[in-house]
Amino acid sequence: xxxxxxxxxxxxxxxxxxxxxxxxxxxxxxxxxxxxxxxxxxxxxxxxxxxxxxxxxxxxxxxxxxxxxxxxxxxxxxxxxxxxxxxxxxxxxxxxxxxxxxxxxxxxxxxxxxxxxxxxxxxxxxxxxxxxxxxxxxxxxxxxxxxxxxxxxxxxxxxxxxxxxxxxxxxxxxxxxxxxxxxxxxxxxxxxxxxxxxxxxxxxxxxxxxxxxxxxxxxxxxxxxxxxxxxxxxxxxxxxxxxxxxxxxxxxxxxxxxxxxxxxxxxxxxxxxxxxxxxxxxxxxxxxxxxxxxxxxxxxxxxxxxxxxxxxxxxxxxxxxxxxxxxxxxxxxxxxxxxxxxxxxxxxxxxxxxxxxxxxx
Length: 361
What we know:
disordered C terminus, 12 strands, Rossmann fold
């Protein structure tokens, strides 16, 4: 693989143990070109961003021959890298992709995705159910998708955990606010809903017991830390299952989490033990779950403590080390056995392609 190189090229810094960090380089940022500045001035910021992503993908492809493997995100830039790998043909480095946050799209979009994904060795997903969903949606091999548990992100922050007697919900992506508001509408329970996309609430009557606000990331964490319990009203009818970071951060704070995506959340929440999974769209079940934990605080505290213990091992370094295991697994496919041997000597080896590889839970 790639002239026998034993190094890895990533598109962004990754928290890793020292012995892995020294083998991992980060692709430099791509500067803005004059035409991208011009596009931005005329209101075409998205087009300018796409231009930078394409140029950065080309820069990665040019450097890729120096490496045993490349690690990209599952965004447009990472997909362009995969598509351009067609030009290299045989002898390309292994390509592992993570943060695969996809929603299907039109027939043309699915054709584009399938064309790109054929060049990728492993796609890391944060919910095991996404393996089947993505494989079916894009008509690619199930074994291309591997599950790695996500991680909490509180290690860089200091939060004061308490209980100020309110239910907290929040987020910007894939939330069903009507479901949540309908569930708490007739409850005598104070609630705080934090989102920076207030337009998503247009047309939905806000009950008097719900305070709606826009919050910075710091305020979001502070509110979560002071809540009695946390509700994540996620849309479970999408290809992508989300909110893993918010769920794990709440759990690490010792908060019982109620989630409306049972399939997407089963990897993280043991329902009734470390949190509560309720069927999506079932207003009555969500209302009952909220009321039960609100009325039985001792039960909620025990559930929160169990949640904290379950979330604590899911660190960023553990997650990234698991991703590196899949880099080694990709190299098994006849590319660089010397790279694989050295990786296994460092304790990151693994040859299974199944969803359990790299499972840090």
